[in-house]
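Hi R.,

As promised, here are both runs. First protein below:
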Amino acid sequence: MCRHLAYVGPALPLGELVSAPEHSLFRQSWAPRHQRYGTVNADGFGLGWYAPGDPVPARYRRAGPIWADPSFGDLARVVRSTALLAAVRDATAAGADPEAAVAPYADGPWLFSHNGAVAGWPESLAKPAASLEPLALLELESRCDAALVWALVRDRLRRGEGPGDALGGAVRAVAAAAPGSRLNLLLTDGRSIAATTWGDTLFHRPGPAGGRVVASEPYDDEPGWRAVPDRTLLLADAREVTLLPLKEPSA
């Protein structure tokens, strides 16, 4: 499993969301409070954020635990952004890919993260993978399950689907091929956030300076956090949140 978080709203230092709160993503790397599978998220971490005037996000990713990176504190303290996606990773299975397997994945303006695991990986996703063009598979940064799920989402985005349809369609395709998978997905283009709940927790709340936060679990005990029901598609921007039910895949 993993823990992840996305934010859109007024510019903030990255650390105000990722490391400063009492139960921040930083702390969730070793002491998550709502994680249902796994206990330590020490197989890497990553942040993606947007600079003014540039729609293509920057990323900072490492293969080791977030607490072991001495550069992270300075970066989180001084870098400000109006949008970010951050994640701490607990790998589904051992693999040779280091930081290439760490979220966020990126394509154009998009940042993506997968909190969960694909059941029966990799054999279970042979059919969905076969629906992709060979180039889409060759472009994969990593051979882990999250990277293949991202390829399915990215393919839909490139074909013109909106973020909600892209996430919902990919979730149903993977769930049909690999029943029992956990597929909490998170996606942003720097202006809005789309997410799914499929087997694990997700919460949202107004951001500390306005805006919107969507996270695997609350980073503090302040009021305002709202749990998202399982099997739900969340669509949000800085002002509002829409929740839509996700249908089970057809038999």
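And here is the second one, sequence first, then its structure tokens:
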Amino acid sequence: MSTDKNRATAAAILPLVGGPDNIVSIAHCMTRLRITLRDRSLVQDEALKALPAVMGVVEDDTYQIVLGPGTVARVTPEFEALVAEGRSAAPAAPADTHAVTADELAAQGAAIKNAQKAKNSTPFKLFLRRIANIFVPLIPALIGCGIIAGLGGFLTNMHWVPAAVPALAAMASGFMSLIAVFVGYNTAKEFGGTAILGGAVAAIIVFPGVAKIDAFGQQLSPGQGGVLGALAAALLAVQVEKWCRKWVPEALDVLVTPTLTVLISGLVTLFGLMFVAGEVSSAIGTFATWLLATGGAFAGLVLGGLFLPLVMLGLHQALIPIHTTLIEQTGYTVLLPILAMAGAGQVGAAIAVYYKLPRNRSIRATIKSALPAGFLGVGEPLIYGVSLPLGRPFITACIGGAAGGAFVGLFNQLGTAFGSTAIGPSGWALFPLLDGKSGMGMTIAIYAGGLAVGYLVGFAATYFFGFTRQMLTEFNTGPDADTAPEAAPTPPAATEPAPDAAAPVPVGR
């Protein structure tokens, strides 16, 4: 039955993005179906947002449909199959021709214009996205291994089933011990090289035999430089390979190019990159520890308050290498619980919007459908469907995130440092991944307290400061506003719903 449901979702999405012939490529991340389109104008945005399974859409370097964790991994294969079937079949009849009104066209045009403005595809921003693309495919393994590590730690602390602990440790640590290889593989693939050569060069970093090599007067250690070293080594391998492809004769290419790529990149990695990347990795860990130990409250305030704009721009994934480096060094990343407070502020703000707009059924339905995902740390539906289109509630959501971040950061400053053993989850979904030096009880209590602060401050800031009188008049209305009783306690609505009132609503009509 679940397969039928996922196929039905894919079948509903396909005609609304222009059909099979309009699809260039298909991929997915933790929460989004990412589609490269031939003709953007064929997409029916409003109809797509109205689908029950769609939490929102994001236009970036690809067209991204937010379906939520778990769902997207099941819908994507069905979507790919339907696209393949559609391309091989005879041209089908046109899909439902939705009669687009002038207001809808104007809203759609404004949305596209704003998306293009926000896109701002600078070389630096595009580079950060490509770096993020290297690490996003690794997140499911990081989550699974992190939860297994947490389970092993719990059994150890409780002195339960001691025979199972070594097996759990092997499962949790196996991937992390070889993560540099996967990073090298994905890096070469992302930047146009041969993926396996990137993995081969990165494997040098984790090979135990490097302990016999001296570089810069120091003996190397396996894993030195970690994921940053693997990233740099694979980037170098891509450049060496491209140079070889340009100059090596075709008859010798299959022998000479791989050999020179591994040899040159390997030597530079052993006698340069491992040392430099090791120093950078150590500096990141030292700085993060110092920052939270000396100015944890202020650092948490800034990090928690600025994280929603990073999510809005899709740049939050550029932090993945830093999280991964911290996990390699200490077993957990102290930054993620603080950044997760931004989602708490967003949830609190959305609840306040729900109560401030009792007559706008569309926005309230959107909030009701997106809140469960918001509590689990999936913030895009609430960002793009509620707070960002409304404007001021996005700012007040950031205030809630800043307050929660300051709360968690303060306890780090007081000596109760903790973090997440994996990356990806947030909100309530982060509880199984928490780890710290002060015991699980204290760790869970502080994180839960931060969430509560984020919820409350986000709600209060939005309820009292998130709306002007004009906004309440404009948005506190609905399709049935013209039939509402005269004595309603809310501000009088216009005889026709304002065109902008429906604009922020992506789902749940």
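A quick note on the second one: The longest strand covers residues 23-28. Let me know what you think.

Best,
J.
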